[in-house]
């Protein structure tokens, strides 16, 4: 059994007894200096591979996201309709790589929390907000594309507010973590030997762990389900436009025909809502279909990258994580996979722009 050198006058309040006891069991035998960082017993063997993998992802993600953001801000975007949404994804990816992934790596590797109380309360929200932002951004990209196919003029007037709505929705989705997060300052609970060291975790009230993991899975699946439903509607709209485009091109090719003169007379007598029909005739259906295909690939890559983390969270709902020896290793791997789109989204965007 692991034993740890305890300070003199070791007294722990009853409310924190279990948390502090389990925390001290995580140190190696003979640990005296609790103020410096100590690697977790379960992750110490895989420290170097984890650091290398996370550093590679952070570097590649930052280069990709900043490159995408630079192209969107400086270059003349061929498709200005989606510029705001992909700029939002790029900013979100920069936040993931610059803030979320480094703090996540520290949390996975080190047993004692040394980042302070404020970061402890913000960390669960920081970790999940960008995942929700990415999911909802892909949903609104499909919404924007669907509106553009129905009414191009109206779609171009409703871009910026949706970016703010995405961040607001994502922020509201993680507010509950502020209530369930627990921080114990060991310097004040024990003595100066633990000064600067704390325990950052989740309060053990009721079935809080099951609730938090379950709500995370539901909130991550919600935008994905809505996105795939909207994707089907966009596909149906493209099929309708392809058929209407064939009919219109047939009329234009016969200027002397009676059908064409009747068609123009009909257009002149219609009211403003029917002007969409005229606009539809100028849409490049091939480009819209190609864009739709790339949106599908981006959405699927985002969904597939989340599957391991969602499955692991679901597994922990029905299993005691303390009985799982490699819990932190699995969490580190699944989190790394979940943040892979920080690299793939920019590459897919570049391929899309070159294709159209």
Could you walk me through the main structural features you see in this protein, from its secondary elements to its overall organization?
It contains 14 helices and 2 strands. By secondary structure, it is mainly α. It has a two-stranded antiparallel ribbon.
Describe the protein's topology.
Blueprint: H1 17-25, H2 47-74, H3 83-109, H4 116-150, H5 152-155, H6 160-173, H7 177-180, E1 181-185, H8 186-189, E2 198-202, H9 208-252, H10 258-269, H11 275-280, H12 285-317, H13 327-338, H14 341-355
Antiparallel strand pairs: 1-2
Helix pairs in contact: 2-3, 2-14, 3-4, 3-13, 3-14, 4-6, 4-9, 4-12, 9-12, 12-13, 12-14
GO molecular function: neuropeptide receptor activity
Domain G-protein coupled receptors family 1 profile: 64-349
Family: Belongs to the G-protein coupled receptor 1 family.
> How would you spell out the order of helices and strands?
HHHHHHHEHEHHHHHH
**What is the name of the CATH architecture?**
Up-down Bundle
**Biggest pleated sheet:** 2 strands, antiparallel
- How many domains make up the coordinates? 1
End-to-end separation in angstroms reads 64 Å
> What portion of the residues fall into strands of 2 or more residues?
under 5%
- Fraction of residues in helix: 55-70%
List the uncertain runs: 1-10, 247-281
CATH class, please? Mainly Alpha
Transmembrane segments: 51-73, 85-109, 129-149, 161-180, 211-228, 294-316, 328-350
Main location: membrane
GO molecular function, one term: neuropeptide receptor activity
Domain G-protein coupled receptors family 1 profile: 64-349
